[in-house]
Amino acid sequence: MKAVTLQDLADTLGVARSTVSRALRDDPQISPDTRRHVRRLARDLGYHPNAAARALTRRHSGVVGVALPRSAPFVFANPYFATLLEGIASVAEDAGVPILFSASPSPDYERWLREGRVDGLIALGYGLHAHDLARLEVLAGGSAAIALVGAPARVTELPTVTVDEAPGIAAACDRLADAGHRDVALVTGPVNAAYARARADMWRASTEAAGMAVVDTAHGDDTQAGGAAAARRLLELGPVADAWLFGNDAMAFGALGALQTAGVRVPTDVAVVGFDDVPPAALLGLTTVHQPIRALGEHAMRLVVAALRGDPAPGHAFSTHLEERRTTRSAPSAPAVPSHGATEDVT
Amino acid sequence: MKAVTLQDLADTLGVARSTVSRALRDDPQISPDTRRHVRRLARDLGYHPNAAARALTRRHSGVVGVALPRSAPFVFANPYFATLLEGIASVAEDAGVPILFSASPSPDYERWLREGRVDGLIALGYGLHAHDLARLEVLAGGSAAIALVGAPARVTELPTVTVDEAPGIAAACDRLADAGHRDVALVTGPVNAAYARARADMWRASTEAAGMAVVDTAHGDDTQAGGAAAARRLLELGPVADAWLFGNDAMAFGALGALQTAGVRVPTDVAVVGFDDVPPAALLGLTTVHQPIRALGEHAMRLVVAALRGDPAPGHAFSTHLEERRTTRSAPSAPAVPSHGATEDVT
DNA sequence: TTGTAAGCGTTATCAA
DNA sequence: TTGATAACGCTTACAA
């Protein structure tokens, strides 16, 4: 059961193990003959280089860490993360990079880096404490390949993949106003999360810019259950708002369920707009602000892979657009063409 | 930027590095004093043991591999896998085990094991070639901690987590028959996949046992798009079957969309039953056979963790039940109570 | 073109 | 209770 080692090959071949090592790694200065012999024996004996020994001498592991600072149930119950991972994993697959994964409220990514378990890292920028951000910056200075998804609270030189929420949100509000809405309700994400507050502020600003007013506000927790609860609270307030805006799709899903059991018709009685455009949104016909989640993940992993090679690569800001479906009334006027894709380089 | 090593600590403390090593690992035979000193310095200097060096001497990495033999887009677009990963990741999180993840049609799990990158592995049993299965069995004999999700084509002594599809499928067919259905259509998964054929056979058997007949069959590819395409083909055949059974939920979702655009009412004109009960099924009100996907993942990871500790642990067969929702007509009679959870030990 | 030998950072054995 | 020292399996100058 013992694994075959370089020394084993060397012994049975009667050469030095450095020769074997070189032959296996296509070292230019090795005779074609010995190379052939070595490789054949390696195949026959089922030799596989020991990853730990190799990492120890090479000073890097070739692994990239992906640590999401949420519990596993939260991560996978939320299609946002699943879609992000899809992007990350598909680029990793193409690059042949194994991913060390963890979903935990208190992620070990710094430890992973310091222990040399991973050479690179994808972390979530939003919700990253200034304190942790600073430590990541130090590590990046020391040759760690780090990329952030979502902008952290303060500016950073770490390559960051972000999204400009404004175009999609503005389009949504304009469309709502065109369809005759005036009073809207807003269901935000966690009040103590900066990104959720920023999103809510943006909804508010665009609502007013479109000539409407936010007459009710409820706070959710970005989950479906939280959205349903928020919807019930809104319903108790009476039918003042006839358009509901959500901090994310998951909450909108929950609200749609609550609305249905309450017998409120969508979009006749109230229009519903989500944010994210995760896959189930299309299934449910939810009108929502689309952000290219998968592309975010792909780009983040590309940044890390580039950094691993020592190539500096800039961050990137993606755009958003409105995806109109069945939870909003159609406006009298013809719809504008949605804008997809990328915009400007950043950082 | 150089990392702090054991030797560094030993030097500044004026002791041997073996002493430092012991102090850091709570070796019983070490003086409380030196232990304190060592630990304090380690903290102050930000010492982190090098994972590669440690793995090299300890002969194990503490990492568990999860390799899904599908491309990343396929894996994450299918909530089945996301839910499975949820279960796997949450147990891993509790156990403090990092996960090495890969989604690729040709997974490297054997290489991971042989290179010593991982000590354990969760692999998919269905679709596993006899050839690969045999190699995994050899590795398991050599101290690798392996668990399978889903039974492979032939019996194996590897601990396996499976699901008994019969109860849920039988319940679905009985309920359909009670509601007055006689002619059903069947949409299967990939014809070249053994598990999909087995599922289809089970649907057929239960259909007949319930006194109904499969009058149409379409083959899908387990994706939403494939389900929509299959639905369109079925629609062209004319309205002979008024109950449609699916190999999985994803295809049922696609079909629901196709049915809606075709103006066919569900469940009035046709009843729809899925399989899996992935999260979006509840959102859409899809009647479906529930299998405890999350529990499968949890249990598989528990098996691996147990094997890592050297404790043998048996495989397990979970059960299925019918989750009745809005895509089937309610039967005249009162519904039976659904059976949840576990049944019998296996292997 | 190949061999020798030092080193990567730990752990473990054996003495002291 | 602590210190030397030899592994662990691989890479890489430096020699030959």
SS summary, helix count of chain A: 14
| End-to-end C-alpha gap of chain A | 52 Å
Structural class of chain A, by secondary structure, is alpha/beta
Number of domains of chain A: 3
The profile of the biggest β sheet of chain A is: 7 strands, mixed
Report strand order across the widest sheet of chain A: 2-1-3-4-5-11-13
User: How much strand of chain A?
Assistant: 15-25%
CATH class categorisation of the largest domain in chain A: Alpha Beta
- Biggest interface: chains and residue counts? A-B, 51 and 52 residues
Could you state the CATH homologous superfamily of the largest domain in chain A? Response regulator
Oligomer: homodimer
What is the overall shape of chain A?
elongated
Order of secondary-structure elements of chain A: HHHHEHHEHEHEEHEHEHEHEHEHEEE
Low-confidence stretches of chain A: 333-347
CATH topology of the largest domain in chain A: Rossmann fold
Question: How would you describe this protein?
Answer:
The structure is a homodimer of 347-residue chains. With 347 residues, chain A is an alpha/beta fold. Chain A contains 14 helices and 13 strands. In chain A, the strands form 2 sheets. In chain A, strands 2-1-3-4-5-11-13 form a 7-stranded mixed sheet, sandwiched between helices. The first copy, chain A, has a 6-stranded mixed sheet with strand order 7-6-8-9-10-12, sandwiched between helices. The longest helix of chain A has 17 residues, at 79-95. β2 (99-103) of chain A pairs antiparallel with β2 of chain B. Chain A binds a DNA duplex (16 and 16 nucleotides) through residues 3, 5-7, 15-19, 21-22, 25, 29-31, 34, 49-50, 52-59, 116.
